[in-house]
Design goal:
The protein is of the alpha+beta class and 762 residues long. It has a domain at 2-316: 7 Propeller (Methylamine Dehydrogenase, Chain H). The chain is 17% helix and 41% strand. A hairpin with a 4-residue loop joins strand 44 and strand 45 (477-483). Helix 6 runs antiparallel to helix 7 (695-704) and helix 8 packs antiparallel against helix 9. It is globular. The termini are far apart.
Length: 762
């Protein structure tokens, strides 16, 4: 690893002005420096100063100079900074995502003694050491702190391992203690690991060992069992001074130690299972290095000095330019940064197993990354930032990669097809096939919302020229096989994986229902066919006709338009679907009925929010009114009352909309008090039954809960007096006579005197 000076961020002063601490944010966008004046200065990733703010003491009556800062650390989401101070407190400042965001204290943790060091591992609480020997954790969510373990010796250093699942604490008596949140299957024990000859102020927890150094001018590497296996002794070197600070690379395969006018870098050799001889970089007049911090992508190291200087260094093993479009920087044996020179975007490709990355290629229209190690294959999508590492034995570079599908990479080698989903570290599926043509393989991975809400990962491919196999990639089981009488030249699943379209050499288009396993021929002389993206609509060409199936479940219902040319493409964007047709030298577009496409697709998927969003973009007409009515009926059946309320509001049915709004309020209150599903409350179930005019069902719900009065009240509001009287008689209700008088009065008011007399005779 080479260290090359990149930039000076702060000029050193004539006297002592110690840089107390440095920290890079996990997202690589911010860099924080704590000066001797107790001020946090914030820089962007290019080293430009963007902001600063002053720190506060635990108690203002002791003055702003009553403490020093012993450690700073960014939160895992890069929006907060934790500050450990010697006046027995930790402050957490919220700095926000933007530079202009106000800096405010959001947490404070008061301690019994001075804070001496501090780290904030990902997905963990703040870990800090105290002068009384305790190592504690501070939880920012609960605003409470607790002791992890206690010792009798001052804590001089803390170091997290590369994954952040464990950490080390170094103490003034030389002891090094190891603790795990999760041992990640290593089986390593917790507790005291070893005793270093001096206080280990410079301590790192690398991927392969523990490395410590201090005032005795010696660097010692310890194995996982706590035994030392490598020494670098500079005690007889008059030019060397004590080691003051150390930092580990994000990959865990390099460490850097700081001393007086010197930075020493050690690189791990996987082949020898040892640390290489330190590479010493001497910098005259830099004086003692008081703080070090390694950028999370591994590309830079920052060093702060006793005299207040802050220097940035580029660190890499090698750097290459690829196609004059990308800069590939190997910042470690197992970590590579790929930078797009056009838009300055970066992707960090890293082997989580610590294997050395041999080469990196950029394929698939310069979008996808492919890297090889001795035992794994690295894949990445620069657009989405999704990265994968799978176990892979190299085939000598004979693999062929196909990137036609945005969700999955297809790797073909010696008659075997492997699928890797971007962002997943396991092979999704593996099949035997000789036909590696993108038109003969169709893979769908959770591309549309499913009513069932489960995983939907399926694949269709050719076993031979006349046989199609359909496979469920989640279970690895075959779910269908189609034997055809002619060679197949195109196939594709729809996005919900319920239907397969395929065409044979005779230009016949066939439809296969995966659930019923029924096959049917739907078009002859088919020269073009395609699913409309984001829907189950099919567009095809039959000689001089454009054929559109808005509902593929009814293949006999096809909409046809005459054409003079040939369909060349299908585009869908900004709420419009267009079929592009080339007629001689002219290009003509045909616009499809977006209402039928969008609304029908949303209803099929059970995505009623999407259906509402679409209908809101249309003016009210007889057609949209029918759509609102359909949606209201389906939303009520699915108990999505907020959707149903919106539908009735759009239709102008204020009574039903208000009734549903009141019902929703009752459900929310019930959920708040019971902590369960508010829709299961008896009042909600009864009101929905009333709305659908199932009055006997509503009566049964009330009576099950022994709410006779509410059942009677329901019937009275509906002027169903006979039913109300029947309920009162059945339950021997004391208000029976009052109910009859009210009924009689209502009959008199409505001009039904004869009926009123009958009521009084009962």
């Amino acid at each position: 690893m080479r260290l090359k000076h990149f930039k000076n961020l702060m000029a050193p002063q004539d006297g002592a002005a110690k840089i107390c601490a440095l920290a890079w944010s996990p997202n690589n966008h911010k860099f924080a420096v704590c000066t001797s004046d107790r001020v946090i200065v914030l820089y962007d990733e290019h080293g430009e100063k963007r902001d600063k703010f002053s720190l506060k003491p635990a108690d203002n009556k002791y003055g702003k100079k009553s403490y020093t800062v012993k450690g700073i650390a960014f939160s895992p989401d890069s929006t907060k900074i934790a500050i450990g101070q010697t006046d027995n407190i930790i402050f957490v400042y919220k700095i926000g995502e933007e530079w202009s965001d106000k800096k405010v204290i959001c947490n404070k943790f008061v301690q019994q003694s001075a804070v001496t060091c501090l780290i904030w591992p990902p997905d963990q609480p703040i870990i800090y050491g105290l002068a009384d020997g305790k190592v504690r954790a501070a939880n920012t969510r609960t605003n409470k702190s607790s002791t992890i373990y206690g010792t009798e010796s001052y804590v001089v250093s803390l170091a997290a391992n590369p994954s952040g699942k464990g950490f080390l604490s170094g103490h003034a008596d030389g002891s090094i203690i190891r603790f795990f949140f999760d041992d990640e299957g290593t089986g390593d024990s917790q507790g005291k690991l070893c005793t270093h000859p001096c206080p280990p102020y410079a301590l790192v927890f690398s991927q392969n060992s523990v490395v410590a150094a201090g005032c005795d001018k010696r660097i010692i590497a310890y194995g996982r069992d706590g035994r030392s296996f490598q020494h670098f002794d500079y005690s007889r070197d008059d030019d060397e001074h004590e080691f003051t600070v150390a930092v580990c690379s994000p990959s865990g395969q390099s460490v850097v130690f700081g001393s007086y006018d010197r930075i020493q870098a050690l690189n791990w050799s996987p082949r020898r299972q040892m640390w290489d001889e330190p590479q010493i970089k001497e910098i005259s007049n830099m004086y003692t290095i008081s703080a070090l911090s390694w950028k999370k992508d591994g590309s830079r190291i920052a060093a702060g000095t006793l005299c207040g200087g802050v220097e940035l260094f580029d660190c890499c093993l090698k750097k290459t330019i690829y196609k004059n479009k990308f800069e590939i920087t190997h910042v470690g044996l197992s970590q590579v940064i790929v930078k797009n020179l056009g838009n300055n975007s970066k992707v960090v490709l890293k082997s989580h197993y610590g294997y050395e990355i041999d080469d990196v290629r950029i394929l698939g229209k310069d979008r996808y990354l492919v890297g090889h190690t001795s035992d794994t294959l690295l894949l990445g999508d620069q657009t989405t930032g999704k990265l994968s590492e799978i176990q892979w034995q190299s085939a000598g570079g004979n693999e062929k990669f196909y990137f036609d599908n945005e969700n999955v990479c297809m790797i073909f080698n010696a008659g075997e097809l492997a699928l890797v989903q971007y962002g997943e570290n396991e092979i999704l599926g593996c099949v035997r096939t000789e036909f590696m043509n993108p038109h003969l393989i169709s893979v769908r991975l959770n591309e549309r919302k499913q009513r069932s809400g489960g995983e939907n990962k399926k694949m269709a491919y050719l076993v031979d020229l006349k046989t199609i196999a359909i496979m469920d990639l989640s279970s690895g089981l075959g779910i269908g096989q189609i034997n055809h009488d002619s060679k197949i030249d195109w196939l594709e699943l729809n996005e919900t994986c319920k239907t397969l379209l395929f065409r044979d050499k005779k230009l016949k288009l066939h439809l296969y229902d995966i659930e019923t396993q029924q096959k049917s021929s739907i078009l002859n002389y088919c020269s073009y066919v395609q699913w409309v993206p984001g829907s189950d609509v099919v567009v095809a060409q039959n000689r001089g006709n454009l054929c559109v199936w808005y509902n593929i479940d009814a293949p006999e219902r096809v909409t046809m338009f005459p054409l003079k040319g040939d369909i060349v493409d299908l585009e869908r964007n900004e709420g419009k679907t267009e079929v592009i047709v080339k007629e001689g030298v002219q290009t003509i577009t045909y616009t499809l009925d977006e209402g039928l496409i969008e609304f029908g697709t949303a209803i099929d998927d059970g995505d009623y929010s999407r259906a509402v969003a679409f209908l809101e973009s249309l003016e009210l007409s007889s057609e949209t009114e029918a759509m609102w009515k359909t949606l209201s009926k389906l939303a009520l059946e699915e108990r999505q009352l907020h959707i149903a309320e919106r539908c009735y509001s759009a239709l102008g049915d204020i009574a039903k909309a208000r009734f549903l709004k009141d019902t929703l309020t009752i459900a929310e209150e019930a959920a708040k008090h019971t902590g369960g599903n508010g829709y299961n409350h008896y009042k909600v179930r009864a009101r929905l039954a009333i709305m659908e005019k199932r009055f006997k069902e509503a009566e049964g719900i009330y009576l099950e809960q022994n709410h006779v009065d509410e059942a009677m009240e329901m019937y009275q509001e509906l002027h169903m007096w006979d039913e109300a009287i029947q309920v009162a008689e059945a339950k021997s209700h004391p208000e029976l006579e009052t109910l009859k008088r009210n009924y009689n009065q209502w009959l008199m008011e409505t001009g039904q005197e004869e009926a009123a007399g009958d009521v009084m005779l009962q």
